[in-house]
């Protein structure tokens, strides 16, 4: 089992925590991690792009000139793709880009990226994050104390003061234990997690 240091919001080490190998010590599966990221990005696509084919463009019902004897190339419609105002060849139509990963695959992908962050020493455990007011300066001071600039901060419960304090910091995102995902964990250099959140993650994903 991996042991990590536990810090307070002043950046001082206040103890250690033993992480479960069932979540933070699995064999990293790069293929599943890649598939999880592709799936998440694909599922976000609206798929509403649309262009008209030659069958959908208005006009062009009459043959522009006779087949032979004009010196022009033969043409059947002024709405063919080579004409200005014509339809688009293989025009995009609305479609659903999403695809589904199995539950076991999603869980293993998440555990893989968490394991990788622990191995890279990019997983910081904080005893608790509590503010008595909404103050961006206090949240930034905590990041400075922990020597972190770009981070995903995982909370066990939705604390309005903490979430709103982090909202105006561009390189920081807050998340709850039930909303963490592979893409966000990879996107941010460091993952900051409260002790309570670690316990919940281990309970859910072990």
UniProtKB/TrEMBL annotation:
Molecular function terms from GO: rRNA binding; structural constituent of ribosome
Domain of life, source organism: Bacteria
Biased composition (Basic residues): 60-71
Subunit note: Part of the 50S ribosomal subunit.
Keywords per UniProt: Ribonucleoprotein, Ribosomal protein, RNA-binding, rRNA-binding
Residue span of region Disordered: 44-86
Family under the similarity heading: Belongs to the universal ribosomal protein uL4 family.
Function: One of the primary rRNA binding proteins, this protein initially binds near the 5'-end of the 23S rRNA. It is important during the early stages of 50S assembly. It makes multiple contacts with different domains of the 23S rRNA in the assembled 50S subunit and ribosome.
Any one GO biological process: translation
Protein name stated in the entry: Large ribosomal subunit protein uL4
CC terms in the record's Gene Ontology section: ribonucleoprotein complex; ribosome
InterPro entries in alphabetical order: Ribosomal_uL4 (IPR002136), Ribosomal_uL4-like (IPR013005), Ribosomal_uL4_dom_sf (IPR023574)
Coiled coil: none
Organism from which the protein derives: Anaerobium acetethylicum
KW Transit peptide (keyword) present: no
């Amino acid at each position: 089992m991996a042991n990590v240091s536990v810090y307070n919001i002043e950046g001082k080490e206040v103890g250690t925590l033993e992480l479960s190998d069932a979540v933070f010590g699995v064999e990293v599966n790069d293929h599943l991690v890649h598939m999880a990221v592709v799936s998440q990005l694909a599922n976000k696509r609206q798929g509403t792009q649309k262009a008209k084919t030659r069958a959908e463009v208005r006009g062009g019902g009459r043959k522009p000139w006779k087949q032979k004897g004009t010196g022009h190339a033969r043409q059947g419609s002024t709405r063919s793709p080579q004409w200005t105002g014509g339809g688009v060849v293989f025009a995009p139509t609305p479609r659903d880009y999403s695809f589904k990963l199995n539950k076991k695959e999603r869980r293993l992908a998440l555990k893989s990226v968490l394991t990788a962050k622990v191995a890279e020493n990019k997983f910081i455990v904080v005893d608790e994050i509590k503010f008595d007011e909404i103050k961006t300066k206090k949240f930034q001071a905590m990041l400075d104390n922990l020597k972190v600039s770009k981070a995903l901060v995982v909370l066990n419960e939705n604390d309005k003061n903490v979430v709103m304090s982090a909202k105006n910091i561009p390189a920081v995102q807050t998340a709850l234990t039930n909303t963490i995902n592979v893409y966000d964990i990879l996107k941010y250099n460091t993952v900051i997690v409260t002790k309570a959140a670690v316990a919940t993650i281990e309970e859910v994903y072990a």
